[in-house]
Amino acid sequence: MRGDRGSTTLELVIVFPVFLAIVFSAVQAAMWWHARNLCLSAAQTGLQAGRISHGTPAQAEASAHSFLARAGGSAANDPHVSVTTTSTTMRVEVTATAMRVFPIPGLDFTVTQVVEGPREVFTTPGVGSGP
């Protein structure tokens, strides 16, 4: 019909931006998930490097940063590694910002992953035990 002329174009003008928003939201969710996995792996790598018998928090932090530099690329931006220790445990926290699909100022997708585990302590059987 003559009155329907251009209706398909108008429908596309309305529907296409919604479709693009859904696609870009899915891509942004995938980037957040990837950054989350990178931070978790970096924290685990740092914990493994620092929890050994003579490991230090500096070694744990360097190992986590090294992992992110090798594997992260630009998927995990502005990484920050925090290591806290006690005499028996070590805790590694890695925080980064996921890459943004749309560079909207103030819209940051921050990811924080924490791992904690016991520190290795070698003991000699019988030492320190009573008679």
Walk me through the structure.
- Helix content is 46%, strand content 22%.
- It has 131 residues and is of the alpha+beta class.
- A 3-stranded antiparallel beta sheet has the order 1-2-3, covered by helices on one side.
- A hairpin with a 3-residue loop joins β1 and β2 (89-98).
- The protein is rod-shaped, with a radius of gyration of 24 Å.
- The chain starts with 6 loop residues before the first helix and ends in a 13-residue tail after the last strand.
- InterPro entries: TadE-like_dom.
- Residues 6-46 form the TadE-like domain.
Which descriptors apply to this entry?
three-stranded antiparallel sheet, 3 strands, membrane, transmembrane
Briefly summarize what is shown:
This protein is α+β, with helices and mostly antiparallel strands. It has helices at 7-50, 57-72; strands spanning 76-85, 89-98, 110-118. It contains 2 helices and 3 strands; from the N terminus they run ααβββ.
How would you state the average pLDDT, rounded?
88
Rg calculated over all Cα atoms: 24 Å
Tell me about the largest β-sheet. 3 strands, antiparallel
> Helical element count?
2
Tell me the distance between the termini: 103 Å
Task: Give the CA-based shape.
Answer: rod-shaped
What structural class do helix, strand and pairing data support? alpha+beta
Instruction: Output the strand order for the largest sheet.
Output: 1-2-3
Strand-residue proportion: 15-25%
Helix content: 40-55%
Number of strands: 3
Q: What is the H-and-E element order?
A: HHEEE
